[in-house]
Design brief:
Largest sheet: none
Shape: globular
Radius of gyration: 19 Å
Number of domains: 1
Distance between the termini: 31 Å
Helix content: over 70%
Number of strands: 0
Structural class: mainly alpha
Strand content: under 5%
Order of helices and strands: HHHHHHHHHHHHHHHHH
CATH architecture: Orthogonal Bundle
CATH topology: Hydantoin permease
CATH class: Mainly Alpha
């Protein structure tokens, strides 16, 4: 039971702690100065949201996200959010594949070598079904989290930073809501796909509270470190590199590899949500659906997605706030809302 709980916990963290989070860019965009309370609120909102999603998924015995989505947002809005989730997962995965190509270039490999490596790895991962993702999460994520925490604590110690020096200044507390909301759609998709594999509600509590606490602690220490180098962040596309410049080249290479694995786990979670949804309306095996989806994505990695993301992501943020509200108030709405 404990082992299964940790398995789902790593799946949740792997879905959330993508390249944007691990690089520090996502945290700095939402948090920054005076955000201690915002991060605490994020832990609460995130843990509650995950618990509701997993509980609905468990009760529905679901193998894809549609029954869970229908329960959360209601019948009338299910079609809209079904399309939104599919587009979100598709575009995010395309960006992750392109990110792998860019990471390859950082190691003096061609762009297409970087793309090919992640595509082949994703196909191999899903040959044995969902189990492959769960297994690799259990091996990769402790290494990724451990490396990240080590660097951040080392930086905190070397720079003699105080972790709670600005606790009375918390004007940015509202950032918790959009930050949590933007992570909701992929969690609905991924956790909706494993409801038939969860065996007890104890696993749900372990996974949801554990993932919330781990992400909260890392977010707080990471954000505190970024505040100290706020003037330098503008010079770096990846804020983590502004921290790593204080350490040997070997450390930079090691963390760059871990960043690639963050890209990989995000792409794998996106593919999981997509293909399990498609499998509910087709008879193709999982690995073949993965090949088909990746074949559609590869050509799109060469296009400019900044305009696309610029239009779509703000819409995600608005719609996701509605989903977040439904999740937080689900125990109350579940009793009085007949539209399900």
């Amino acid at each position: 039971m404990l082992q299964s709980g940790f398995k789902w916990m790593f799946l949740i963290i792997g879905t959330t702690i993508g390249a944007g989070y691990a690089s520090g860019r996502e945290l700095w965009q939402f948090f920054g100065h005076e955000s201690g309370l915002a991060i605490l609120l994020f832990v609460i909102l995130f843990s509650v949201s995950c618990t509701v999603i997993m509980t609905v998924s468990y009760n529905k015995n679901s193998s894809h996200y549609l029954p869970v989505l229908q329960e959360i947002v209601g019948v009338k809005l299910t079609g809209l959010f079904d399309v939104m989730i599919f587009l979100y997962l598709f575009t995010t995965t395309v960006v992750m594949i392109a990110g792998s190509g860019a990471t390859g270039q950082a190691f003096n490999l061609s762009y297409w070598w970087g793309v090919s490596i992640i595509v082949v790895a994703l196909i191999i991962l899903f040959v044995k079904g969902i189990g492959g993702l769960l297994v690799i999460n259990q091996f990769i994520l402790p290494l990724l989290l451990g490396g990240l925490i080590y660097i951040l604590l080392l930086f905190t110690y070397d720079q003699e930073l105080a972790l709670f020096s600005h606790w009375k200044e918390q004007r940015n507390w509202t950032a918790a809501f959009p930050f949590t909301a933007l992570n909701i759609l992929p969690l609905v998709a991924v956790l909706g796909a494993i409801g038939n594999k969860v065996r007890s509600k104890y696993e749900i509590w372990i996974a949801c509270i554990g993932s919330g606490l781990i992400l909260g602690v890392i977010s707080y220490i990471y954000n505190n470190s970024l505040i100290q180098i706020s003037e330098e962040i503008l010079l770096y596309e990846i804020p983590l590199f502004a921290i790593l410049k204080h350490y040997p080249l070997e450390m930079l290479i090691f963390m760059s590899i871990l960043l690639w694995f963050a890209i990989f786990t995000t792409a794998a979670s996106g593919i999981l949500g997509l293909v399990t949804r498609l499998q509910s309306i087709s008879k193709f095996p999982l690995w073949l659906l993965v090949v088909i989806m990746l074949s559609m994505m590869i050509p799109l990695t060469t296009l400019g997605f900044s305009t696309l993301v610029g239009y779509i992501y703000p819409v995600y943020g608005i719609l996701n706030l509605y989903v977040l509200t439904r999740l937080v108030l689900y125990p109350f709405w579940n009793k009085v809302d007949p539209d399900r």
